[in-house]
Amino acid sequence: MTSRILHWADGAEFAGTSDRWADVTNPATGKVSGRLALADPDDAAQVIASAVQAQEAWAETSLARRTQVLFAFRELLNARRPELAQIITAEHGKVHSDSLGEIARGLEVVEFACGISHLLKGGHTEAASTGVDVHSKRVPLGVVGVISPFNFPAMVPMWFFPIAIAAGNSVVLKPSEKDPSASLWIAKLWKEAGLPDGVFNVLQGDKVAVDALLTSPDVASISFVGSTPIAEYVYRTASEHGKRVQALGGAKNHMLVLPDADLDLAADAAVSAGYGSAGERCMAISVLVAVDSIADDLVTRISERTRTLLIGDGAAGSEREADMGPLVTRAHRDRIAGLIGSGESAGAKLVIDGRSVSARGDEDGFWLGPTLFDHVSSEMEIYREEIFGPVLCVVRVPSYEAGVELINANAYGNGTAIFTNDGGAARRFEKDVEVGMIGVNVPVPVPVAYYSFGGWKRSLFGDTHAHGTEGVHFFTRGKVVTTRWIDPANRPAGGLDLGFP
Ligand code: NAD
């Protein structure tokens, strides 16, 4: 059964007038499950107009009322997590528990945004000069655009819109065309929570929709998450159009294992972080950097664990949930299978080949099993490319120094981890490594909502990370007011003075 997946504007579904449509598939069956409206520029203009119309009144709504809506949204989302998880699994393919996990991390940001009254407090200085007080405030930007990738259809939009809305902005979300239904479910939830129509809008589509947001004079800022080439394009284009931009890009996350680490825990972590969500996480571990003396032992432990994984349809209801679901699309699966071939030809040792997977599920699903390469070197394509799939590459290094050098030479700087029981080495790593998010014996160090999420180098364009206080800063503009009230009992002398005050 296929459904029509539309835009959302003025608090209702909106079909638009474009005649461009795209298929949405269930990756576990390979079957088309929906037909997605792809916006043309006129549709985009209408959705943006809905956001413009609603924004001023929303910004003038009291903080108490705005916070009530945020709390209501939090309650509804919390109560209905399984419904949303089902939608995510059906279009993305990740297993049900993993879909619940991304909702939990998104919910954290909603909870953070519930404290917006505190977060928006300005400063006040009495008598900065005689009879002169100064105060600061932060005001909303207006209409903000959020453009999200396929791999977290609920969590990544939630990195941005709860804070943006709480701060008094209206939002146009452009979700990934691969798994767009979560966005509409969320739009309906906002309505139920009492958010006025037009404050949260969804624009479905591809590059045409993105370009409309990047160039519209009515859109004040762009928050983008996706691959590095598109992040760079978005950053450049939106900046040229005078917008504030944060554009988070791709990743190649390394996990360095030192000889004194607990190798069982390190192997557990490598398998969980490498193959969770079929490796389609921007914080997945894709490169395991093993110091020579323990490399053989570690690869053995990783391969033993990898062979126990169950690959299959991740929908809820099975007796034993699969560990890993399918890849998001057939094209993505085939691309990764091609990269596995390239690693083999380049001379890396293919310890486990995911191309010959036996999966529990429909034979037309986009299956690819976990793949393990050993003896990978930094000039190989499988090392240089962001594979974004269940492929773990082991690079062997002679020392800690060589491991850090490898990580720092990489073009990306999103996340990294060190596994060691040596506090001094971990402390040194924290200082030496040129990466935005670092784990010490934690393989996927996604910051909690009250800190900010973002990488370095080609993993982020712009200087502001997502959520936490940086998020509040991004979605507001500062004003500083200098005030002199005339007190008749202490009236200033007056008179002309052309000197700099
Ligand atoms: P993508 O770059 O293909 O798409 C992201 C968004 O950009 C989508 O909404 C898509 O419709 C739009 N888009 C695609 N091509 C475009 C074009 N030519 N012009 C304008 N817009 C375009 O990314 P994806 O495949 O959906 O997601 C996976 C990527 O996202 C990976 O590279 C992953 O590392 C990255 N990612 C990064 C983070 C992070 O925090 N740094 C988080 C999640 C995902």
Automatic annotation (TrEMBL):
Aldehyde dehydrogenase domain ranges (all copies): 18-481
Keyword hit for Oxidoreductase: yes
The entry's keywords: NAD, Oxidoreductase
Stored InterPro entries: Ald_DH/histidinol_DH, Ald_DH_C, Ald_DH_CS_CYS, Ald_DH_N, Aldehyde_DH_dom, MeMal-semiAld_DH
Annotated Pfam families: Aldedh (PF00171)
BP GO terms, sorted: L-valine catabolic process; thymine catabolic process
CDD domains attached to this UniProt entry: ALDH_F6_MMSDH (cd07085)
EC number(s) per entry: 1.2.1.27
Annotated GO MF terms: methylmalonate-semialdehyde dehydrogenase (acylating, NAD) activity
NCBIfam families: MMSDH
Name of the protein in its database record: methylmalonate-semialdehyde dehydrogenase (CoA acylating)
